[in-house]
Write a structure and sequence with these properties.
Length: about 110
């Protein structure tokens, strides 16, 4: 897309960043990454939130918590089945909707 035409519009990556990063709620969140597990992300249930707003929010904490799981589900994939309708698509992948192996591990192995 021509950058001059995109002025004043929200990009997909900007929306995704707001969905994934709690700082846009106006609160601080600690313990988002584990230091002893190789720096893996901790689940939101383990985050420690500041008791009060620390800066002006872009979204409410409730809205952030309601849309964060949706962003995780859609990560790295288009919504819906069927071939990609984009004119520059060169090939299709029949196994695109097959779940990644990391999702098939038993809960105790994750």
């Amino acid at each position: 897309m021509d950058p001059r035409r995109a002025l004043g519009r929200w990009s997909g990556s900007a929306v995704r960043e707001i969905q994934c990063n709690p700082k846009y709620t106006g609160y601080m969140a600690w313990n988002r990454r584990a230091t002893k597990k190789g720096g893996k992300n901790n689940p939101p249930s383990e985050w420690v939130w500041s008791p009060h707003l620390t800066h002006e929010p872009l979204v409410t904490k409730e809205l952030f918590q309601s849309v964060s799981p949706i962003g995780k589900i859609r990560e790295r994939s288009r919504s819906g089945a069927g071939p990609n309708a984009h004119p520059q698509t060169r090939r299709t992948y029949p196994l695109r909707l097959v779940r990644p192996l990391r999702d098939l591990r038993p809960p105790h192995a994750q």
